[in-house]
Predict the structure.
Amino acid sequence: MSILGRKISAVLISAVLAFLILLAGQIPWSLLLSITFRNRPSAVPWSVAAMAIVLWLIWQYLGGKGWPRSTSETRRRYLRANRVPAKPYVLAVLSGILSSLWQEFGSFFFSWPKHPQMFSPTVLNSL
């Protein structure tokens, strides 16, 4: 197989694996939510706690624990969940909070006119 063929097959295999990992989290979440809403929509959302356990189990498997042991090292190596240094982490959280506040309250301080025709030449000339 040529180098290009190996690269293409690696990308395709990665895409299929990523999709399977996505399904491993999405299918239980969809089932848990449908069970919760079907039984008692006003009840305590127990599906959130159950999904936290499911996600923890997925994270453990991708981190190298579990069967098959032959792929354990590869799964651990490709998890790539490295600790983010404190300063960029704090700045990212702060920018997220500020952008949420701006989205919520920015229009209160700097809003476009509700009636754009207020700034039409006819209205401005009559002032």
User: Anything to note?
Assistant: The CA atoms of residues 49 and 55 lie 10 Å apart.
